[in-house]
Write a structure and sequence with these properties.
Elements (H helix, E strand, L loop, with lengths): L12 E3 L8 E6 L3 H9 L8 E6 L4 E3 L4 H5 L9 E3 H5 L3 E4 L2 E6 L4 E5 L10 E5 L2 E4 L13 H4 L6 H18 L6 H7 L9 H18 L9
Parallel strand pairs: 1-9, 2-3, 2-10, 3-6
Antiparallel strand pairs: 4-5, 7-8, 8-9
């Protein structure tokens, strides 16, 4: 969320409480584990008492434990995602947008359609009675120089695709007849930083993909 105040952002429209609607408005920011769990826990008759609005730039929930399988092709990405609109059906509304600023005094926030969607940015203001923030976190490089520029993060579908593409590129380059042995060893050396659930799963999936799937496809580089 930006440092800009609400009044500094140009908005196209405002979503205010209607005079005839006595329900309290609950705005949920995010579509990850916290937000999805909150939405699934809401009772079926929640619309009778509350107006629920979900705001998130990602219009799907990602089941991250299976993300390593997507990176190696063991599983398709559509198998580990669930559209946010499926979660809010009969419970509320969803807007694909990024929260830019929040005013806790006036109980308002400004959200904008993400620019990276290829369309013009469209900002709107939403008033709320209760605000649930479940936007997650960003990758932490711990201040280590070169991490952001030269490493592959592993948190999203895009990260899984990038890793899969990178591994394929390394093997194709290593298979070229003009590639020196020293460079080939570098190309086929993969370092996984982190020994938590994600790091262990990524390392295991890479090992299985290389020695079970790619060994027959690249006999000259995997012996």
């Amino acid at each position: 969320m930006a440092v800009l105040s609400i009044d500094e952002i140009s908005v196209y429209a405002s979503i205010d409480n209607k005079p005839v609607d006595t329900r309290q408005r609950v705005v949920v920011l995010g579509s990850g584990w916290a937000a999805a769990s909150f939405l699934k826990a809401l009772p079926k008759d929640v619309k009778d008492k509350f107006e629920v609005i979900v705001v998130s730039p990602r219009n799907y929930f990602l089941y991250t434990p299976l993300l390593p399988a997507v990176a190696t092709g063991t599983m398709e990405e559509r198998s580990i995602v669930e559209p946010v609109r499926n979660l809010v059906t009969k419970k509320g509304d969803y807007y694909e947008a990024v929260c830019k600023a929040i005013d806790p005094v006036r109980k308002e926030l400004v959200a904008c359609f993400p620019k990276d969607a290829g369309l013009d940015e469209a900002c709107f203001k939403i008033s709320y009675d209760k605000l649930v923030i479940g936007v997650g976190s960003v990758n932490n490089t711990f201040g280590i120089q070169g991490v952001a520029e030269y490493c592959n993060f592993f948190k999203s579908i895009e990260d899984a695709k990038a890793l899969r593409r990178r591994v394929s590129e390394c093997f194709e380059r290593a298979a070229l007849p003009a590639t020196p042995d020293e460079e080939r060893r570098k190309l086929l050396s993969f370092v996984v930083v982190g020994g938590g659930p994600t790091g262990v799963e990524v390392a295991a999936e890479l090992h299985d993909m290389i020695f079970d799937d790619l060994k027959d496809l690249y006999p000259s580089v995997i012996k």
